[in-house]
Structures are given as structure tokens and as C-alpha cells.
Amino acid sequence: MKKFISTVKNIFSIEDLRIRILNTLGFLVVFRLGSFIVLPGVDPSKLSDSAEGIFGLIDTFLGGAFSNASIFGLGIMPYISASIVLQLLTVGVPYFQKLQKEGESGRKRINQITRVLTILITLAQGVGYLSATIPNEAIMVSKPLFMFSSLVLLSAGTMFCMWLGEKITEKGIGNGISMLIMIGIISALPGAIIAETISKGTSGLLLLLIEGAVLFFVVLGTVALTEATRRIPVQYAKQVVGGKVYGGQRQYIPIKVNASGVMPIIFAQSLMFLPALIAQIWSSESDIANYIGTTFSDFTSWQYNLVFAIMIILFTFFYTAITVNPEQIAEDMKRNGGFIPGIKPGAPTSDFIDNIISRITLPGSILLSVVAILPAFAIVAGVGAQFAQFYGGTSLLIMVGVIMDTLRQIESYLLMRHYEGMMKSGNMRNNPSNYAVA
């Protein structure tokens, strides 16, 4: 406890770090306040208390802004969708591949295209959002006026959330967009704990403690999955420039076991609503359709979780393949005079890295699918639905990833000012400095 207090004092004794933390907290407060400002012309008392299905997932990411019909009702989700589209385009479209290789100017151009695409996606999603989630009886003005004003406000709200995210990245601590998603998710945690405590009562105190202990170990396992890497040694040849010797070092390329992050779960979760939706259309004509509709509407059923897990494994391989480019890594190493000991530069190096990625992606994808279906097991075991969502899935992975990234940044500030780090070893795992070995 004494070390923790000392670390907090050290953090706030660094002026730049203190200002960045306070800026981050201020921006997050503004974001949370905006989540409760209801769109003009809406009667909040006639809105649904909770969202279900894919809407429930989005509502979790936005901290309730989606179900509140807030001006931040779409939050930064359109921006994330636009970023994913651009990321996929850079894989298959030569124009975007060229932009990606142009450095800072190419990055600025991609950002401009992403912003324009974000506005278009916001308008398209806004129409669906207003039509599907806000009942007619909740609208207190004429429908055309409401649709026009709400689309303008939702677009402005999304762009403002993007601005907040960029400001957090620039003047705060951590990745701004990820931080906004995390604060939306974590805002539901106090309510979930209170609801779980009330449902268990005083007689279920022991059971509540057991649930907390299990959650602790689940978080530990998720941290291990998020941070696990396979380090590939790289030797750099010595170069003599102007009488000085450069290179001659051995460094490491850290390949993450879970290089795809939460994207496979998001993709799979989006598609898992299709079977029930299709079955609902044909339910009156087929017993099989009724069975499929009933089975895939219950996310605690073994059939749902088996298909969900298989889809996550497949999407993990797909997303890793389009985001990690062994040929590019091998080309960069060759250009910088680096090589993997025992492996020839060029195509053999690319094949070697590709084989390693394939080997570690399989266990990583299996573990990721296990984390994704843990909330279903928690509900079957008697944990409340609100509290169970923190036992795994996208919520836990995003929280763990963002918190670890933020802690790494704080750690770097402390070590830069010659303070002892936040970990006992004085260095967090996966700190970039850990991968350079003289």
C-alpha cells in the first residue's frame, strides 16, 4: 500500500503527466454528460428501458447513450465502422495501399477520407437508429422535422465524440477513441455490482465473494491473453559510417498471440443475429426454422456458443491475415540490414514469420473464443445478466486492453523521470524497451 501511495505521488509530481491525466478526466466527464442529453422532441418516459441483441452491444459500448436517445446516440461507432472499412480497403485497393506508404501526407489523406465516410455512415445509421429505437408515441414534434433535426444532431454528436477522442490522444493519456469506449463500458459496472448484490441478498454474500474471486482470475487470464507475445530474434549487421560503428544489435519482433484484438468477436457477434432473424421470417412454415429461431435467440444455448466460437476462430485467422503482413515485415528488416539468425533474408524470412503467426494464432483464437463465451457460462452458473457481461466478451477485452495501454504510457513517463515504475520489476511487460537487447 505504501508503494502504491508513493507511485501516485510520483505520478502527480510530474507536471506534464498530471495535466494530461486531468485533461483526460475532463474530456471523459464531457462525454458522459453528453450521453444523458436527450434529442429535442423526444419524450424520455416513453423510451424502452434497455436495448437487446446487437443494439444492446452498441448500448454497452456507448454507456447507455444509445437507449437514452441521446445526442451521442451513435457515439464513435460510425467512426470505428469507417476505420474498419478503410483498413480493409488498404489491403485490396492499390490507391489506398499507395496512400499508406506515403508517410505523413498519406496518413492525413486517409484521415480526411475516414472523416467524410464517418459522416455518410452516421447519416445512414442515424435513419435506421431513429426508425428502429424511437417509437412514434415518444416523438412530440412532426416526424419530418424530428428526423431532419435529429440526423443533424447525431452527426454533430459523432463528430464531437471524434474530436474528444483526438484531444484525449493529443493532450491526455491513452488512446482517445478506445478510452471513450472503455468509459462507456465501465460506467455500467457500479450498477451491475449493486444489482448483483441486491439479487443475492445478505444470505448470498459468500456466493458474491466467490463470483468476485472468479472474475479476478478471469481478468488475469484475459490480461495474459492480451499481453502474450512470441518474440522473434532479429540480428542487425554492423555498419561503419564516418568512423563510427552502428548496428550489431540483437532485437526482437513481438508478434502478439492475439493480434486481432476484439475484432473477431465483434464480427462474429454481428452475424450471430442473422440465423434468428431469418428463422423468424420462415417460422410459420417450418419446424426447423422454429427450432433455429429458438436456439439462436438464446445466447446461453450450447448450439449458439459452439457456432459463435467457431466463427470467432475463423474471423481471428482472417483478421490476422489482413492486418499482419509478413512480406512487409521481411522487406523492412532487409532494408534496415536485419535478419533472423539461421534464416535467409527475403522470401524465406517471410515464410518463417508466416509459419510462426499461423502457429500462435490457433491457440490465440481458441482462447479468444473461450473468453467470448464465458458470459454465457456465468449466466448458466447463476450470475446476473448485467454482471455476467464483465466475465468476458468484448467488454472485458476492451477494458483490459485500454487499461494496459494507459498504464504503459504512465510507466514510460515515470521511467523517463527516473522514478520507480508501477510494477515491482520497474518495467512492464511489452514495454518497447524490453525488446532491445545489446
Could you give the topology of this structure?
Elements: H1 2-13, H2 15-34, H3 53-61, H4 77-92, H5 94-100, H6 104-133, H7 143-171, H8 176-186, H9 189-200, H10 205-227, E1 229-236, E2 239-241, E3 244-246, E4 250-256, H11 263-271, H12 274-282, H13 287-297, H14 302-323, H15 326-335, E5 338-339, H16 347-380, H17 385-388, H18 393-416, E6 436-437
Helix pairs in contact: 2-7, 4-5, 4-6, 5-6, 6-7, 7-8, 8-18, 10-18, 11-14, 12-13, 14-16, 15-16
Question: Can you offer a commentary on this structure?
Answer:
- This protein is mostly helical.
- It is built from 18 helices and six strands.
- It has helices at residues 2-13, 15-34, 53-61, 77-92, 94-100, 104-133, 143-171, 176-186, 189-200, 205-227, 263-271, 274-282, 287-297, 302-323, 326-335, 347-380, 385-388, 393-416; strands spanning 229-236, 239-241, 244-246, 250-256, 338-339, 436-437.
- A hairpin with a 2-residue loop joins strand 2 and strand 3.
- Helix 2 packs antiparallel against helix 7 (143-171).
- The longest helix is centred in the C-terminal third of the chain and has 34 residues, at 347-380.
- The chain is globular and about 80 Å long.
- The model is unreliable at 431-438 (pLDDT under 50).
